[in-house]
Amino acid sequence: MFEEYVVKRNKRLRCGYTTGSSAAAAAKAAAEMLFGGRRVSQVELMTPKGIRLELDVEEVVRGEGFVSCGVRKDGGDDPDVTDGLLICTRVEYGGRERGSGREKEGESEEVPEAADGRRVPEIIIDGGEGVGRVTLPGLEQPVGAAAINCVPKQMIREAVLEVCLVYGFEGSLKVTVSVPKGEEIGQKTFNPRIGILGGISILGTTGIVEPMSESALINSIKVEMKVQLKRGNGYLVVIPGNYGTVFSRNELGVDTERTMKCSNFIGETVDFAAELGAKGLLFIGHIGKFIKLSGGIMNTHSRNADSRMELLAAAAIRAGTPLSVLSEVLKAVTTDEGLRILKEAGFLEAAMRHVTERARFYLQARAGGAFQTEVMIFSNVYGLLGETEGAAELLERSRL
Fold first, then answer.
1. Rounded distance, CA 371 to CA 358, Å?
2. Would you call 361 helix, strand, or coil by DSSP?
3. Burial class (CB in 10 A: 0-12, 13-18, 19+), 208
C-alpha cells in the first residue's frame, strides 16, 4: 500500500495515485515484459510530483507481438468512484510507418534523435474500452480523441521510452489504455456533462492524489465552463448543485444540459468566466447558500462562513422590519424558518429585493465589470424568492 500522508483539518489522511500514474506504470511493466520476456510483478514509477511509486502489476496477458497488464488505481483516503479500478495498458509492436502523421486511432509525437544519435522510438497512445472519447470542443484533447490528458500521456510516453532505451529499441509502438468497468463508472463522474462519453478520463497533473483536495473540483468547473461556452453564445446559467438543477428545470423550464454547476466555488467561477471571455452569468441558487452572497461570501461552504441569519436580518433591516421580528429571525435555525417569519410579518418580498441586489453587487465587483452577472434565489418551500433586474433577460439569452 502506498504510504504517503497529509494532514487536513487535524486528520492524518493517506494519499493515493492517479489513473494517469496507474496507466503509465502499467505501460512500463508491459514494455518491460514485451522486450525482456520475463514476468514483472512490481514496477517503479517516478511521478511529476517527485514521489517514487512501487506498484503491483496484475492481469498480465501475453500474445504475439504484445503484452497487456494492469495496475489498480488507489485513491488513498480521497473519496473517488475510480478508486480500486484496474487500469490496463497494452503495448504492441508497430502501428504505422514513421513520419506519416497522426494515426487514425491514436496520436503520436515524434521525438528528435537522442543525444547519442540513436533514433527515439515513436510511441502512439490511444484509449480503448472504458476510456471516454471527447465529443465536444473546449477540452484539453480534440473532439474524437481519447480522454487521456496531456500529463498522463507524457507520463506514459516517458515510462515506455525509458524501457525502450534500456533495450535499444528504435521502432514504433502502440500503447492502448483500457479500463474494465470504465464505461459504467464514467456515468457516475462529471464526464457526461462535459461531453466525454464511453468511459472515464485518464487524469492527473502530479501523479499523486491528495485527499480532500479542492483543486480537482475547481479545475472541473473551469473545464465545464469551456465546453459550455463553446456550445453557446457566451451567456451561461450557473447552478451550485442538485436543488438548483431541479428548481431550474421544473419551475423555470431551463434545459439543464446547457447549465453548469459551480458547487460552493462562486468566486472561482466568476474568475474563470472573466478569463474565458464569458458575456454573462446567471446564478440560480437556494437561499441557504445564496444568502451568503449578499455579504460578499464567495465560497458558500459552511466551514468557511455561515452568517445566514445575520445576513437575512440585515436585509430585513434595510426593508424596515421591526426589531421584534428581527429578533425572531436571528433565533431561527434554518433559512426557511427565517423566511416564514418575514413572510408572516409582510416583509419577505422587500427583504429579498435587498438580498438579490447585494448579491449582484458583490458578483459584479468580483467580475470587475468584465461581463454581466444576475441572480435568482429560491426556496424549496416558498419557490422563487427574488431576482435581479436583468435576470429574466439573461435567462432568455442563455437559451439562444
1. 17
2. helix
3. buried
Q: Could you give the 3-state DSSP secondary structure of residue 302?
A: coil
Torsion of CA 243, 246, 252, 256, to 10 degrees: 110
Q: Which of 152, 229, 232, 218 is nearest to 190 (CA)?
A: 218
Cα dihedral sign for 232, 238, 240, 243?
A: negative
| CA–CA distance, 65 with 44 (Å, rounded to integer) | 23
pLDDT at 98: 37
CB neighbourhood size of 314 (10 A): 20
Phi/psi at 141 (nearest 5 deg)? -100, 150
Report d(CA 350, CA 320) in Å as an integer: 9
Is-contact 170 119, C-beta < 8 A?
Answer: yes
Percent helix, strand, coil in the chain, to 5, is 40, 25, 35
- Give backbone dihedrals phi and psi of 208, rounded to 5 degrees, phi first: -120, 140
How far, in Å, CA of 373 to CA of 387, rounded?
11
The pTM of the whole model exceeds 0.90: no
Render pLDDT for 349-370 as a digit per residue (tens, 0 to 9).
999 999 999 999 999 999 999 9
Which parts of the chain register pLDDT below 50?
Answer: 97-105, 108-112
Helix ranges restricted to H, the chain: 19-36, 150-167, 182-186, 215-231, 242-252, 266-276, 287-290, 308-318, 323-331, 335-345, 348-367, 391-398
> Do residues 244 and 211 lie in contact, with contact meaning Cβ atoms separated by under 8 Å?
no
Per-residue pLDDT at 101? 37
What pLDDT, in 10s, does the model give residues 274-326? 999 999 999 999 999 999 999 999 999 887 888 999 999 999 999 999 999 99
β-strands 66-72, 86-93 pairing? antiparallel
Residue 66 φ then ψ, to 5°:
-150, 160
Q: Provide the Cα torsion 349, 354, 358, 364; round to 10°.
A: 70
CA distances from 167 to 33, 36, 174, 201, 209 (A): 11, 8, 17, 31, 32
One-letter amino acid for residue 13 of the chain: L
